[in-house]
Write a structure and sequence with these properties.
By secondary structure, the protein is mostly helical. Helices cover 70% and strands 1% of the residues.
């Protein structure tokens, strides 16, 4: 498709998304139900009965990051967001690294969510009385079985994502309504009727067992919030860039409320051992404690919907980020091919789905789903913290002149992002050191610190290798200027109404 100036594209391909569409995409990407159903149990295994405290603590630096995204998006809306902003304001190598780690982190997330989706479907089958097929026993804790089922779903949602953001947003909006109704109902009921007494100590971060637990818990919680910035990846497809900013902030605040509600409800209903011991089946166990069948299956259905929506929501922003990188020639041309029928990067979207399916298959070396989840969220938590921190520092560098004009505005634009970046970098560095010193050997296991450190290290190292290829082989102009292609230059991505 020939590239045309922004105003020449047909009205049907012009910016057509609004705040609600952005919220649907960002909220699905954040996947509150999945984070509550699985992330809370994983985090409780680290911080104990202090989930509300860690969720509140993690929200503070992420809020500073959201402010940085909002301010940068206001002056330079671009599907590449952090990749473009960091490259221009700090350094092209760091900008490319931000774009790259977001890609590999999302692919890892999609691989793990693929297994989670399969697990939810197999759990639901078990609740319906289907425990075997053709003499083959169904096990929702088996990585092989859950991955096989999840890949089928991943293929379906990837094909839906090809048809456009508006179609995806409509699907995700419907799924979100069901999820949130179920979450609010069950969590509210759990808070009122739970057998364990409410304690203010749940909100006290000073009672978290250790500094290592605090650091790991913070990054796990940052992982739970990760995804709000998906609203900024469709900022070239919304009617007004401010709509993307509003959608991101609305999503983030909504997630805080849901995570606090979920963490209090879970701790009212479940003991610490029950919280940490059920992994991917945590939400189903919570539902069983509060209701009998068939109502007890509703949280499991909500988890399945959340996982399906987050699969699709993960494919969409990643394809658009790679679109932005491809049009700068930092990635191959296949990623910037736009479908003449749908107005989307269709080839790139399909490739993202294929990559996620391949990584999900490779994850079969870890035999149990719970181990796969722990290994993935720890790795992704570290690289997401790095990406967020660099983007915040880019905002501080970009708007540092405001400190001389108005100290209040300058504090919001410069000081808060710097503090947020320092917090995330400090936590990530401390956790990496803790992983390294926790053992004296490397083993492919979710409880081996050096393996947990190796995964994000490989993600980051591969980014510098890919950047070197883009600079010296592809000869991308991005590495001379750090500036991304103007968002108005390529064909628009918004699908027809």
């Amino acid at each position: 498709m020939t590239q045309k100036p922004y105003g020449v594209d047909p009205p049907s391909l012009r910016k057509s998304l609004g705040v609600v569409d952005g919220v649907a995409i960002a909220a699905s990407s954040t996947a509150a139900t999945t984070s509550i159903g699985i992330g809370l149990g994983v985090t409780a295994g680290v911080v104990g009965l202090h989930l509300p405290a860690i969720m509140l603590l993690a929200f503070l630096p992420v809020l500073g990051i959201a402010g940085a995204y909002t301010r940068l998006n206001r002056v330079e809306p671009n599907a590449g967001n952090g990749y473009v902003w960091v490259g221009r304001s700090l350094n092209p190598w760091l900008g490319f690294l931000v774009g790259w780690v977001n890609i590999v982190a999302t692919v890892a997330f999609l691989a793990y969510t693929t297994a989670v989706t399969g697990s939810a479907l197999l759990q639901l089958a078990g609740e319906a009385g289907l425990h075997e097929v053709a003499g083959f026993a169904l096990d929702p804790g088996s990585t092989a079985q859950t991955t096989a089922v999840g890949v089928v779903v991943l293929v379906a949602v990837t094909l839906t994502a090809v048809t456009g953001v508006r179609t995806a947003a409509r699907l995700q909006g419907g799924l979100l309504v069901f999820e949130y109704v179920v979450l609010l109902g069950f969590c509210g009921y759990g808070i009122v009727t739970g057998p364990h007494a409410f304690r203010l100590s749940w909100f006290d971060p000073f009672q978290i067992p250790s500094a290592t637990a605090l650091a790991q818990g913070m990054l796990l919680s940052v992982f739970c919030y990760w995804g709000f910035e998906a609203a900024f990846t469709v900022n070239e497809e919304v009617r007004d860039p401010k709509d993307a900013s509003r959608a991101g902030l609305i999503t983030l605040v909504t997630m805080l409320g849901l995570f606090l509600l979920g963490s209090v409800a879970f701790q009212r209903v479940l003991s610490e051992d029950e919280l940490a011991g059920h992994g991917a089946q945590g939400l189903a166990f919570f539902g069983d404690r509060l209701a009998s069948m068939p109502l007890a299956a509703l949280p499991l259905v909500a988890l399945m919907f959340s996982a399906v929506a987050s699969l699709q929501a993960g494919v969409i922003p990643t394809a658009r980020g790679m679109f932005a990188m491809s049009r700068d020639r930092t990635l191959g041309p296949v990623w910037s091919k736009v479908s003449s029928r749908y107005g989307t990067p269709a080839a790139g979207t399909l490739l993202i789905g294929a990559l996620a399916a391949a990584v999900a298959a490779l994850a079969l070396v870890i035999p149990r789903l719970a181990d796969m989840i722990m290994a993935t969220v720890n790795a992704v938590g570290i690289v997401v913290a790095l990406s967020y921190a660099l983007t915040a520092l880019a905002a501080a560098a970009r708007f540092r002149g405001l400190l001389r004009e108005d100290w209040r505005t300058g504090t919001r634009a410069v000081v808060l992002p710097v503090l947020s970046a320092a917090a995330l970098l400090g936590l990530g560095g401390y956790l990496a050191w803790s992983f390294y010193t926790s053992t004296d050997h490397l083993e492919v296991s979710a409880d081996n610190g050096r393996f947990l450190l190796l995964v994000p290290t490989l993600m980051i190292a591969s980014g510098f290798m890919a950047a070197a290829w883009a600079k010296w082989v592809r000869r991308s102009p991005y590495f001379r200027t750090g500036r991304g292609t103007d968002a108005d230059a390529p064909p628009l991505l918004a699908a027809p109404r």
